[in-house]
Amino acid sequence: MAKLVTQITLGIDVAKDELVICDWSDPEQFIRLENHPKAIRSWLRGFSCPVRIAIEPTSTYHLACVDEALKLGHAAYLINPRQLVHYREAVNLRNKTDPADAYLLARYLAHEADQLKRYQPQSRQAQHLWALMKRRALVVQTRKQLKQSLDGIKLASKALFQQIDNVLKRIDQRMQQLIRELGWWADYQRCRSIPGIGPLNAMALTVTYHRGAFSSVDAFISFIGFDVRIRESGRFKGKRKLTKRGEAELRRLLYCAAKPARSYHVFDQFHQKQIDKGLPKIAANVVLARKLARIAFSLIRNEQTFVKKEI
């Protein structure tokens, strides 16, 4: 008797022009499909039962597949690439090919679905805002690399960096415009009221807060990647480190905000307290950066403005 299939589990490896698909019910067979909404829609309509897909976010190339799946009522799970790397090692999958990645995604979803959160789409404006934040981080990183590469070389590079700065300025202006259009301006101003939090940090915090429905401030901190990984076994006490699972750009911005935040005496005392505990300055800055994120979350959730304490 044929096995009754009530739900189909798919792993999809995404490239710019092509999707490689693994059906967990037959993991040795793979489908190659054009990465185009019309082709994806036609293929998905061929299923007679619910479908759930695991897909690794790849720039914007995964969006067409995810959007078409959601339109047809299917479930989509965006798998963190960092988690997938560790999962590959755990299951001893040595090959790194498109079919192998599709297989790994299908296997991960089949075994870990209960621990995963279904993707809930945001508006196009919110998606565009998130993409702008990530692209801004790439531009900043590129500018840094260029400066290091051209350091000591007598080239007329001033105009080049001026152009890059103009691009960053235009991105910032567009991000502020989108925050206004989305009705998040009051939340942006609440973040700006925190000492040390400038316009860029406030935008990043506002965008991240509205990225998901966080049950608590701890969930928000975990999403950013500021939560701590504990490694202990018997008498062994491993060094505690950040999980760094969230968006690296937000952690970088918050870390940079820690220094100006210390101009406020309460934050400066908090920072010094961490050093007195024996933490190095970098770790103390991280702790203060995490505190800034916690404060921002509470202000937005409670619709409040930061109020400084007098000396």
SSE layout and pairing:
Layout: E1 8-14, E2 18-23, E3 30-34, H1 37-44, E4 51-55, H2 63-71, E5 75-78, H3 81-90, H4 98-112, H5 124-150, H6 158-181, H7 185-192, H8 199-209, H9 217-224, E6 228-229, E7 232-233, E8 236-237, E9 241-242, H10 248-261, H11 265-276, H12 281-302
Tell me about this structure.
27% of the residues are buried. Helix 1 (37-44) crosses helix 2 (63-71) and helix 7 packs antiparallel against helix 12. The protein folds into 3 domains: 8-115, Nucleotidyltransferase, domain 5 (2-Layer Sandwich), CATH 3.30.420.40; 123-183; 186-311, no CATH class. The longest helix has 27 residues, at 124-150. Strands 3-2-1-4-5 form a 5-stranded mixed sheet. The protein has a two-stranded antiparallel ribbon with strand order 6-9. It has a two-stranded antiparallel ribbon with strand order 7-8. It contains 12 helices and 9 strands. It is of the alpha/beta class and 311 residues long. The protein is globular and about 65 Å long. Helices cover 54% and strands 11% of the residues. The protein has helices at residues 37-44, 63-71, 81-90, 98-112, 124-150, 158-181, 185-192, 199-209, 217-224, 248-261, 265-276, 281-302, and strands at 8-14, 18-23, 30-34, 51-55, 75-78, 228-229, 232-233, 236-237, 241-242. The mean pLDDT is 89.
